Amino acid sequence: NAGVTQTPKFQVLKTGQSMTLQCAQDMNHNSMYWYRQDPGMGLRLIYYSASEGTTDKGEVPNGYNVSRLNKREFSLRLESAAPSQTSVYFCASSVGIRTDTQYFGPGTRLTVL
Amino acid sequence: GNSVTQMEGPVTLSEEAFLTINCTYTATGYPSLFWYVQYPGEGLQLLLKATKADDKGSNKGFEATYRKETTSFHLEKGSVQVSDSAVYFCATTASGSARQLTFGSGTQLTVLP
């Protein structure tokens, strides 16, 4: 049982480059989330998808876009990376948007030079 | 919106010592409260949760009680082990229909043999 998987695990970009972070879950969950983790700040929600076909902004959406490709997959895109986007990115999923327990992937460590 | 304040780390204890990590929250309505744990190089895992006042969550020897009168959810363990070394996050759900998580900044725990 893989749970929540993320690719890549590590990535280094130059300022202005673009990239897409991939996330997939095999638990048949309806809701999916993207967070970023910065030192001393805990996790902050970037975007979430309550169900297939819907996406909504979280606390820190600027500079990011998301796509809920199907029920399993939820991708996060940086169109023009900036050094302020250097962070660890976590994807999570839950049974539903009103369900409390979220399950997290292993994370992607992104460095923007 | 909701917020969570956690005891600042890092915390260093000897094996078999008693652990307390303080957590207080501000929230409207009736949020659920959580403790997540992040082991080195991994994503977050749910450690325990409580969904209403006076509930006690427990798992792997860890406990926390939802105290509405003091808006607290302190994490305790009677005898820590080296394998408990990790970062611990307190979190609460947002009020309203979308149960988004709001995290504290995390507390690094190191247990020495």
Write the layout of secondary structure elements.
The complex is a heterodimer of chains A (113) and B (113).
Chain A: E1 4-7, E2 10-13, E3 19-25, E4 31-37, E5 43-49, E6 56-57, E7 65-68, E8 74-78, E9 87-94, E10 103-104, E11 108-112
Parallel strand pairs in A: 2-11
Antiparallel strand pairs in A: 1-3, 3-8, 4-5, 4-9, 5-6, 7-8, 9-10, 9-11
Chain B: E1 3-6, E2 11-14, E3 19-21, E4 23-26, E5 33-38, E6 44-50, E7 56-59, E8 62-65, E9 75-77, E10 86-93, E11 101-103, E12 107-112
Parallel strand pairs in B: 2-12
Antiparallel strand pairs in B: 1-4, 3-9, 5-6, 5-10, 7-8, 8-9, 10-11, 10-12
Explained architecture:
The complex is a heterodimer of chains A (about 110) and B (about 110). Chain A is mostly beta strands. Chain A is built from no helices and eleven strands. Chain B has no helices and twelve strands. Chain B has strands spanning about 5, 10-15, 20, 25, 35-40, 45-50, 55-60, 60-65, 75, 85-95, 100-105, 105-110. With about 110 residues, chain B is an all-beta fold. Classes of the chains: A mainly beta (about 110), B mainly beta (about 110). At the A-B interface, β5, β9 and β10 of A face β6 of B.
